[in-house]
């Protein structure tokens, strides 16, 4: 039997046992893992150095090396994160609804774990801790498939987690790491419907596309954000500039940063120069449509490709529009249904925007950068769902749960 | 452009328009469709006769012919069903949650339509009306792919629906039928992620398997039910027999009927004969394990294949077990996580059963036959979900919705 099938079956067998563990047992285990990670920091950093050396030898670049790198500081952050997850309320067992039928049947809808979660992710080894903790807290067993470039680090982390789980009351193999990181094995994992209840990909657009394309197991899709700010003709001048600049530049590499600014022509006629100047001060490269370039001939022209692009960089596309509807149509055509904002003092325009734009998160007079589990107050984030089934937008612990109906009768037959 | 892509793009374009229609506009349209169906009953029955004649010529069998057949009575039922859906509360626009963040952001979570629903189903033409009405009520455009054997009937029904929608305030093409029913086109439909938000298969196990295997669009899986009744040693004798017989025989062809009866040996020692007799009176064929056959040598032996089989027929597998845990293990091994019942007067055993068995619906002292949207009081049923993401168990109108976050700020930046 392959490593994949063996571990997946084990995860499936243990799911029932983990599902009935108490909140206290789960929280104790999370704290034990935190303590063990701190105690074995030296071991993990030694293993991490092997990945870093191999990465350097393979020329993977400074950016990726930084994502791969663990430090004492980062280890402390992971331990802190585990304590934070332990402190969150346990969604499992929550009674979501309850009612009685005319025939006397008492129906309750209660939250239960999903079962077995398959997690597929890229370089950062801290995701191993992060994913483990969120799955454990929600009573799900997990099968983790990290990047081959982080295999030494991930193996070390999982060893440490196992040593902590051994002294906890949870099954030791509640979390398992797949050491075979080959493409063929990933493809098989994506189709292991008899063992896995859900697959969550975490990483770049290519990874997510591959998972969605090949999975027969249900997928919680996360990721791509081609977000827009629409500056209405009734926008406050200072607020609009501040929000647009923040949404573009505060952290350009993340999915909730803004990629295109749409501007009503009347606002643009008055304030375009101020916006362009503020963006340029932050070293943002601007690609603009014809109407915008008429206001500033020095700007580069934008192509249709620009409207579609998630730059994740200090580049922004700007389109001056004639009316709100043109902005909404643009967003519907090119947006990825992630986060969209309108800046205006006109409530009617807000209402139209909120009603007609289809996206996970719609903002009025705020930066798109707030689409985030922590900013929403969820205390944890599994990712930001860009699909419409099950969970949409920032996903907290409840996104890792399902439900079951409990029906109590007194002999009812049909 | 193929019919599929053209209609799917149209559905996608119209989704935004349909999503903002009011409850009144949607309900009026449903009632207009009901009236139009009654008015054009003769036309639809004439078209239906063509399908029946072709079906007979192809020798499709009486059972399938019956599913294909429309009558005045069935037309009236459809019209009545449309009025019932119109009378249900509209889930769209419901505010699910609302809270304020320390930075002053006001967050609301509101229910919205899914967008475009692809429905793939088999012979019965009444599903065309059923699916259309549920999608319209929830503000979703739909692309319907029925069986080629019902194409005349489905086309006639869609023509009638379009004539009703023309005089309504909803877009006429809110509902569309795919006339190209080829396999290749279905496969393409299953992978049309840029236009479809969800695929719902309705039909037999083979259809559902094909959809799950080939779809890259998220699927709402429905269907297979290998359901169990466990008769505990503390079960009331009369109630246990009554529920077991009802769950097996009241309508054996449906997914929530029971396929295997698990019996604690102590109960079996006293009451096995009475149960067997009651089942035989209803012409149920029994396949039993060795321990059961020791109590009645006349019974056929059960194989492992029997434990796995959804008979959908007057056949039942019986297994006498030594204890509750053996019953729970059996269910976890062979069940399809649909509906499982325990008959007992022992509350501790109920608690263990409810906690340890992983299924959409768990019953205490009631028949598994109640797993149904109408019996649960939902007023409508899209199907019974056997997956754990998004919706589990009977799906009412809310299962056809998603949500979006609406965030109101006063200039917040990060």
Write the layout of secondary structure elements.
The structure is a homodimer of 414-residue chains.
Chain A: H1 3-19, H2 23-39, H3 41-57, H4 62-68, H5 72-87, E1 95-100, E2 106-113, E3 116-121, H6 126-137, E4 141-145, H7 151-166, E5 175-177, H8 183-189, E6 198-202, H9 205-214, E7 227-231, H10 237-249, E8 258-264, H11 265-281, E9 285-288, H12 290-295, E10 300-301, H13 304-308, E11 315-321, H14 324-334, E12 339-343, H15 347-356, E13 361-366, E14 383-385, E15 393-395, E16 401-412
Parallel strand pairs in A: 3-4, 3-6, 4-5, 7-8, 7-12, 8-11, 9-10, 9-11, 12-13
Antiparallel strand pairs in A: 1-2, 2-16, 14-15
Helix pairs in contact in A: 2-5, 2-7, 3-7, 5-6, 10-11
Outline:
The structure is a homodimer of 414-residue chains. Chain A is α/β, with parallel strands linked by helices and 414 residues long. Chain A has helices spanning 3-19, 23-39, 41-57, 62-68, 72-87, 126-137, 151-166, 183-189, 205-214, 237-249, 265-281, 290-295, 304-308, 324-334, 347-356, and strands spanning 95-100, 106-113, 116-121, 141-145, 175-177, 198-202, 227-231, 258-264, 285-288, 300-301, 315-321, 339-343, 361-366, 383-385, 393-395, 401-412.
Could you name the CATH class of the largest domain in chain A?
Alpha Beta
* Shape designation of chain A: globular
What is the CA–CA distance across the termini of chain A?
A: 46 Å
| CATH homologous superfamily designation of the largest domain in chain A | Aldehyde Dehydrogenase, Chain A, domain 1
Tell me the Rg of chain A in angstroms.
24 Å
Strand order, sheet with most strands of chain A: 10-9-11-8-7-12-13
- Largest interface chains and counts: A-B, 66 and 66 residues
Helix content of chain A: 40-55%
Given as residue ranges, the uncertain stretches of chain A (5+ residues, pLDDT < 50) are none
Multimerization state: homodimer
Strand content of chain A: 15-25%
What CATH calls the topology of the largest domain in chain A is Aldehyde Dehydrogenase, Chain A, domain 1
Please provide the count of β strands of chain A: 16
Category from helices, strands and their pairing of chain A: alpha/beta
Q: Would you tell me the overall average pLDDT of chain A?
A: 96
Largest sheet of chain A: 7 strands, parallel
CATH architecture of the largest domain in chain A: 3-Layer(aba) Sandwich
Instruction: List the total number of helices of chain A.
Output: 15
Give the count of structural domains of chain A.
Answer: 2
